[in-house]
Each structure stands twice: as C-alpha cells, then as structure tokens.
Amino acid sequence: MIRFEHVTKYFGERTVLDDVSLDIEPGETFVIVGFSGAGKSVTLKHIIRLLTPDLGRVYIGAEAISEATGRDLELLREQFGVLFQGGALLEWLSVGENVALPLRERTAMTDAEIERRVQEKLKLVNLEGVMDAHPSELSGGMRKRVGLARAIVMNPHIILYDEPTSGLDPVTSRAIDQLIERMRQELNVTSVVVTHDLFSALSIGGRIAMISDGRIIEMAKPADFIKSKNEVVKSFLDAQYITKRGVWERGNHETHE
Amino acid sequence: MVMITREPEFFPPPINRLGQFGRNVLLTCRNAGRALLMLGEALLDLRFMFSQRSRPEVLHQFYVTGIKSLGVISVVAIFTGMILALQTGLELRKFGQEVNIGVAVMVSMLREMGPFMTALILAASVGSAIAAELGTMVVSEEIAALEVMSIRPVRMLVMPRLAALMIMTPILTFYASMLGVIGGGIVGLTQLGVSIPAYMDNAVRYAENKDLYVGLFKAFVFGIMITIIACHQGFSTTEGAVGVGRATRQSVIISFLSILVVGYIITRLLYE
Ligand SMILES: Nc1ncnc2c1ncn2[C@@H]1O[C@H](COP(=O)(O)OP(=O)(O)OP(=O)(O)O)[C@@H](O)[C@H]1O
Ligand SMILES: [Mg+2]
Fold it and tell me: How much is the ipTM here?
C-alpha cells in the first residue's frame, strides 16, 4: 500500500533519512516511534509528498507519489487523511467550519449533510458542543482532536497521524487509540501513526518501527518489539518502564498475528 | 497549479562576495518568476470570485481593505492636498498666479500623489498584514494541510485578496484625490485668498481626463503588486516567528520600492 524504496533525504549537510525502506500493508496499523528529532515527521511528510526524497522512491499502491505532479498528485492525495503534529487548523474558521472544510471544497454535499457528518466526526473524537468555538479558544489537546476529526471527515482509506495522543489526558488517549483500532477493523483503514506513547504504540500497532538518526533500527510486531536486542530500542523501552508484555496487552491483537 | 509548500533549502556557504552576489541575483529572479506564476494563477482564479464558496471571503477582504483603511487614507489625503496647495501657492503668489493652485493640486493628486499615498498606506497596513497572516499559516503547517487536502491556497487565500486590492486601490485612490483637492481648496481659501468657486473652476478646466485615467491605472497596478509581493513573501516564510517578522518587513520594503519605481515608469511612459 505504502512503500519506501531506499529513501534518502538530506537537509543541507545533514542526512535526515538514510536509506529507509518499508512496506506498509493495506489495512495495517503501522506505528513509528523514535526520539525527538529522529525523522518521524519527515518520514510521514514523504508519504504525502510534502517532501521529496533525494534518493529512492515512495509508492502509494502502484503509483510513485514521489514523482507525481499536478492532477496525479491530487488524485493520490485524495486517498489520505492527515493529522499534523500541531493540528494545523485555520484560525479564522470555527471548529465546525474547519472540520467541514474538505467537504465544502471538495464535495457537492448539502449543508445539512455536511453538518451531520461534522457532528458525527466530532463525536468520535469526544468533542461535542465546540462547533462554534474558534481554534484559538481551544486547548492544545482539543485542537489536536479537531485536526483528527478533519483528517477523517472525508472517510479516507489511508490516515496519517503525527502524534495523535501527545498532550492528551490518558482517558482521551485511550479513546483515540480505540478510534484508530475501530477504523481499522470496521473500515479496513490503513494507518500510519507517529507517536512517543509506547503504550498506545504497543496496543494499536500491527508493526512498530523505530527510527533513530534517520534510520530504521527495528521493525517488528509488538510482541517481538519489546524483546528487541537492539540497545537503542531497549533504552527506549526501559525509559517508559515497558519490560514485559502483560503491561500493555488488552487482548485485541489476535487479529494482527 | 503551483505548489506553495516548499521544502527547506540549504546552500553551501558562498566562496566569495561575488558568489554571494550572483546567488542573490539568481534567487531574486527565481522568486520574481514564482511570484508572477502565482499572479497568473490568481488572475485565472478570479473567475471564482462570485462562486458561493469564495464569496464570503472575498467580501470580507473587501471590507478589510476598503473600510478599515479609510480613516488613515482620509487624514493623509487631506494633508497631502493642503501641503501641495500651500507649497505651490506660496511660489505662485510671487507671480500673482495663486488661482492656479487649483489645477496644480488636482493634477498632482489624480496622477501622482493619490495613487502613491494610497498604495503606500495599503502596502504598510493591508500588505504587511497579508504577509504576516500567510507566513503564520505556513509556519503552523496550515498551508501544507490545505495542499494535502487538495485545496489550492491560491484560490482560497490569494484570489480574494487580489480581488479586493485590485478593485479597492483605484476606488480609494479616487477618494483620496478628491479629499486632497478639498484640502487644497481649504488652504487656498484660508491662506491664499483663492475663493472656492475660482479654485474649482481652475481645477476642472485645466485638468484632463487622462490625468484621472493614468492615476486609476497606476492604482490598479499598485494594488496587484502589493498583493502579490505580500502573498509571495508570506508563502516563502521559513523559520517560525522570526521568519514571519522578516517576511512582513520584506514585503513592506519591496512594495515601497516597487511602487516608487513602477510609478515613475508609468508616468514616464504615458507622458513622453
Ligand atoms: N523544515 C526543516 N528545516 C530544517 N531541518 C528540519 C526541518 N524539518 C525537520 N528538520 C530536521 O530533521 C530532523 C527530523 O525532524 P522530524 O520533524 O522528522 O523529527 P521528529 O522525529 O518528528 O521529532 P518530534 O518527535 O520532536 O516531532 C530534525 O533533526 C530536524 O532538525
Ligand atoms: Mg515530529
């Protein structure tokens, strides 16, 4: 579904992605973890061609999005919903208008249909009654959830999440995890999730990849990921006190295995 | 379709001054080219001006550009007219020609000072605001988000601003010119002893329609320039809040310089 072939990206002298290859299956929840500044957001941006690789290619299905232009790029991007790290809400529009934006601009839906869809999505992210508020009146976590509602409002079949649960309280974080998991089960959505939250990585991930200094140093199913021999992965796990399987298991992983 | 979201750019340190200069020249040319491409796209997008989706934003921009700048423009215009009248009037009095301040003020306001003053004010207020607004949107990834949703930032953001400035600058210029003439008349009456009817008669008799048209044409061009410079600077923002500040400052400076130069060129071409 999403395939990186030897992707390398330089920012000036620095190599921010170093020969990254991955293959994300349709209907998979692929989690990317790593230290701050490791290159997680940069990886995500390559998937939707906000960045172009210096070497290598990125494929969506059979099409190379890293080479696409104009209308082709537009068609490829139509399959995606994207949650940006900061939410990326338009400040002069209300919450409702922000979520409705893709529907207004890209579809012929009537106002009533749009309204219904927007309410439905805001409910999914546990945000009701803020339709008329402006983004500047919301907390960071609320903005993120509005961004999430906007990302899923077109019912895309690939969703990219840049830190969906950072800055959220534990209860809401788990609700977002469940939302991601439910979309996978019910709609066969392919998700790529960048997160710092190992707990959610382990509970929603079909596979987890750890990026360090622009390189994938480990890529495995959750059960194997926590047993990784890699020293960097170990230190990452230790820092979040995740040492044995029981801590995170919630019994919904048979589907992945 | 022009992609607005740019990848960060890195250049090796220049070898020497000349290398630095050459690079700056090339980058300036490239930026001018990009700005012109964006202008082309925005002009094409003007066909959506009255579409249901764009209309609220277009109207909002008209309001911001037109109504909000009215106060400053009025004050500046009246004083410009008064200064013009006083300045030329004092000289003309030496020859007993005070009554000719009518045409002097009318022609300078219509052709030069009206468009010039209005454009400077708009560049400093509306233009800088555009650059800051768009720059902030770039920094917070809002522009990237729009492009990922296949919503063209040019249609959504540039076109309404272009429409507003393109149309409001000539209107405001005409308004400013008229206020300037009134200001000149007041000075004529109170300082130089020229009666209002004599002043108006002189102004209307010797000013030509061409002066009006040239002024309005200039204003139209200035309006387009201010929008495109501000939008381009805003979209080129990098490096967070510092970048937004730099984009705003650049947009004002470049607009001021271009208004001066282009204003001169137009007068020169049309009054040879
Ligand atoms: N626009 C940019 N200009 C210059 N360098 C950049 C830019 N964006 C990212 N980088 C660099 O690329 C590297 C990877 O950045 P990236 O945003 O992918 O980190 P990340 O893994 O998402 O970190 P975080 O968890 O803090 O979001 C960083 O070291 C950063 O300095
Ligand atoms: Mg990041």
Answer: 0.86
